[in-house]
Amino acid sequence: MSTTVSTPDVDETCVYCESRIFDHDPICVRDCDDDCGSPLYFCNYACLSAYMDENDLTTGDACEWNPDENGCC
Fold first, then answer.
1. Which residues, 6 or more positions from 38, have their beta carbon under 8 angstroms from its beta carbon?
2. Domain limits at 37?
3. Three-state SS for 60?
4. Does 67 fall in a domain?
5. How many domains does the chain contain in total?
């Protein structure tokens, strides 16, 4: 799996709040379970977190600890 690294345009906006990402602390996210499609840019971790919550992106993606099983993550 290969990806190309490039710097976004200076006027790139946040996917969540539409602020200019370089006015803040930008984060780039790619879905590499789906062929590493186009990156999504967020101006900070708060917008990324809100975007994840609103789109249920964490549901079912975490390990569940079971003290009776071996090999738990």
1. 30
2. 10-42
3. coil
4. no
5. 1
